[in-house]
Amino acid sequence: MWSTFLVTDEEGRTVGPAAAGTVGVPAAGGPAQGAGGLTSLMSGRSTFGGNKRRRTTSTGHAMSEAQEGKIKLAFFVAIVGVVLTVLGVGTEFWVELSPPKSFYNNQTCLTAHYGLWKGCTKTLWVADIDPERESCGPAELPGESNCTYFKFFTTGENTVLFQKTTRKNLNVAAAMLALFSLFLMVMGAICITMSLSKEILFFLKPASVCFILSGVMVLLCLMVFHQSVLALLASDHTVPLHHELSWSVSCIGSAGAVLIVGGILFLLLALPYSPWQRCLPQKDSSSSS
């Protein structure tokens, strides 16, 4: 007795019955049925290579290489802002406080510098300081340094520098603004990564909002920190101090501007039309007429 089995393709469609030992013999439906089954089998989806579908954007159009290149370029601008922010937030050279060189003795003088998280005092040799400089410093000169983290993050106590007391509310507010801006940067980077991997332009809009808000938060952090420095100097006038903002503040200010520019670039790329192409054709048509 001959046993039969059914030949099916990957999608479960029956190509035709075949007898055991007669694989490749056309089924009892005639050659047309066998040819049709073979055609449907070859036209079905195969796991060993088939035509890969190109991913499309939310508007139904595939992301072009030019759009992808523009997004990567804007992402590079935003990454520069993120790096500058991390560099500024992680360092303690936001402000330098320097009393006069002759305030303590004729051989050494004391200077201080601090950032969002910790402050450092440094003993310098007067002989190493520029003779034309009236105050002690700068802090980059070699000397004995002592750095401690601020206590208002743990025990809630203020810090005393040169008999002057910090305003912990302003310092904590500046630190929280910096942390929140870093969180927004991470969320914006995730949105851009998903937009490039999935080729969906929709993620450019939340990314632009995240980067613009993070840039604004960074600049607000800088303003609040400057107010905390002014409050520190006004707390006591016993020791005359010269203060100057250091290079960490330059990193933070540049980072805020770069992040806002990056967010605006993402917003322009997310528009359904190019604002430049809407203006240029009108000029071309008017010049040709």
Structural summary, described in words:
The chain is 48% helix and 16% strand. The radius of gyration is 34 Å and the shape is elongated. The strands form 3 sheets. A 5-stranded antiparallel beta sheet has the order 6-5-4-3-9. Strands 1-2 form a two-stranded antiparallel sheet. It has helices at residues 31-43, 65-90, 168-198, 204-234, 247-270, 275-288; strands at residues 4-8, 14-19, 95-98, 108-114, 118-125, 143-149, 160-161, 164-165, 242-245. With 289 residues, it is an alpha+beta fold. It has 6 helices and 9 strands, in the order ββααββββββααβαα. The protein starts with a strand and ends with a helix. Helix 2 (65-90) packs antiparallel against helix 5 and helix 4 (204-234) runs antiparallel to helix 5. Strand 1 and strand 2 form a beta hairpin.
Instruction: Tell me the fraction of residues in β-strands, as a range.
Output: 15-25%
Sheet with the most strands: spatial strand order:
6-5-4-3-9
Question: Judging from the principal axes of the Cα atoms, what is the shape?
Answer: elongated
Distance between the termini: 88 Å
Write the layout of secondary structure elements.
Blueprint: E1 4-8, E2 14-19, H1 31-43, H2 65-90, E3 95-98, E4 108-114, E5 118-125, E6 143-149, E7 160-161, E8 164-165, H3 168-198, H4 204-234, E9 242-245, H5 247-270, H6 275-288
Antiparallel strand pairs: 1-2, 3-4, 3-9, 4-5, 5-6, 7-8
